[in-house]
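ok so i was messing around last nite and threw this chain in just to see what happens. nothing serious, just curious
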Amino acid sequence: MTSEPVTPAQPGAAPDLVELAKIVARQRAELDRLRDQAATSAVVERAKGAVMALSGCTADVAGEQLLQRAKAARHTLLEECWITLGGLAPTPPGPGRPQASAGPGARDSEAAALERSAVPDDVSAALARLGKALVRVTTPHELARCLLRHLGPDLSADAVLIYSRRPDGGLALIGHAGVDGRLVAQWSQVPPLSGMAALDALRAGEPRWLEDFTADEGQYLLIGDPPDRWRSRAWLPVPAAGAAEVCVGVLRGRAGTFTERDRVHLRGLAELCAGRLRAFDTPPERDADAATDAVQALFEALPVAAMLLTPLRTATGETEDFRVEAATAQVSDLLGRSGEEPAGRRLLELRPVLAAEPLWQACLHVLTTGQAYDGEPFAHEEVVAGVAELSVYTTRVAPLGDALVVSWIRHGSSDRQEQRLADLQRLGNLGWATWNLVTQEASWSTQVFSLVGRDPALGPVRLSEVPELALPEDTPALTRAVGELVHGGKAFDVPFRIRTSGVIRHLRLVAEAVADRHGTPVEVHGFVQDMTARRRAELALVESERAILTQHDVLQAERTLATRLQHALLPMANRPVHLAGLRVEVAYLPAQSGVHVGGDWFSAIELPDGDALLVVGDVAGHGVDAVATMAQLRFTAKGMVITGSSLTGALARLNTLLLHSGDSHATATMVLARYDPRRRRLVWAQAGHPPPLLLRDGEARYLPRPGGILLGATSSPVYQEAECRLDPGDRLILYTDGLVEHPPDSIDRGLEQLAEAVEAPHGDGPGSLGPLLARMLPDERRDDVCVVDVRVPGRQDR
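result:
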């Protein structure tokens, strides 16, 4: 039984619930691991004890023998332990220690290895997993459920039944899974009838494989309502040193044979179950002498949960378990085995996980030292009058000769009320106080002394002296409130500050008066609460609101400035312009979130030699910095091309300019295009920018991109040029990524949509970008959009 105390959260704490959940999950996983480890250790030690009893060897030698057998038979150690325990002879009736058979100790390792040599690897792995799972099984019903979980995915098992042979030769259903209550009631007791497959398997000591429903129905009395609910069955006697007494039934809804692999799997399963089932055997009846009866009668009369334990020792004298000699009725519930009789059973059999709990170590310590043990309080949920109630217990272990008396003391309601009051004060970070105005006596709870930083040895102060505890600035208000309460009975709720250990603490005093029959206040009741954490949170909230308002003003000013800069640097034409024989229309739409103004830009000018320069660019980011970088690149690019630089040379110099600018982390993408109207030749280069889209004869395609990395990414970029001839009637669209990138859709999907939109006919003629933008842009734009729409007039337009 666990005796860990319930520890409440610290006052004022604001834990992260997700982190707490992770901690609890890790602790639960660690507890499960420790429980499995303790249960596994108990199985191994029990098997070592069996080998020691058989051969008279030491514990180390017994452990080595188990390891050697497991290795020879291709078992895990845990499997070998289960098989060893399952092969023990039944305990003889009457007093005395159980007699072990020579079966497990004399097993031929070479024969066992030969027997398992044909077992498929996946079956061996499955049986190893089952061996681990069996350590968590404590009843035959749990065993049946464990077997069904184990066999369900692999053998398509739908139900598992476990029958034990009765003294009259019939069968008793001791475990089941996958069946309903009505069938359990109908088949819980089976008389010694002929034609029962389970009985037939027990008598013969061999499995019975029922694989042909029509033939089996004529030979056996089949369990089920209707019997064809399960079309194939297997009944396997559990191996034992004598005659098999337990049979496991595996029932499947589907018809079909059990393959040789299935049969090997099921035989191995039955062999492992033998050791586990022995732990469920009812212990041999002890001599019902007068002393035992008297002890049990005494314990039954006790008003508390208690039990008498005697140690069970190994051959070396170590305590491996305790036998419950007598127990009160309440013990079963505290051990998690409601409805079972603990007396006469092993303690670790009743609660295997106890080996990993403090109570087990306490029992061993008391047995060794003779000194009593008092455990910490712990919570336990129990049902009282049909209602679940959480009760608080403490555990006590006391020596009684060579035995131990373990008792659990349930705290009474008065104890719980006091504990609840103490918890309330601690969790609420408050304490109560009373002042008698007649005798001038005062009484404070321990929490009040802690809150005001006063030594409890000095005692509480009188009500009239309470204002002296506050800072001078808060003393007048507190003095006035105390005076109105004492003289007029007016209750008050006053905040004030005190200084304790050099720290300012915010407190709150709430008080009311109790008057005599004449209406004169004679006693004052109140409480003091620490409001420091709340006050700090309020101040932090105010500061946060101020910071938000300040940031909002800054963003608004930046938005206004950036908008004005962009309008000054990037004038927009309100109608199409004609350059070098081309008809050019531009559009710029700012983002609808954040600062709104970003670094997208365009240029469309006619050069001195009659060529047209077309530019589209995008600086990363938004705001004044992005607009400033945009202006620098826009004017520098035009100046370089006008003065004779090639497109790739201009991009290389712009990259160097960006790397050595004030913002070393700034980056930008760009497309530079130069159109020669005499040869209708378009030469273009790009720096990490989406390619232009060409519409010709109603079919849209993207121009193949020449090499080029975005500006500001590297000090040694390589840029290339590409060439394209424009024919009359062609349409060329240059754009920034805001037109085609709309999360969560990918940019590839946006490029497909742009091509589809350009190919679609529009009713308002070729002179407007409106339909294209309306089709491409969402209701709320997260990025700037810049589009340059270039059209080569057709012959009919000239």
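not much to say yet. The domain at 290-414 is CATH 3.30.450.20 (Beta-Lactamase).
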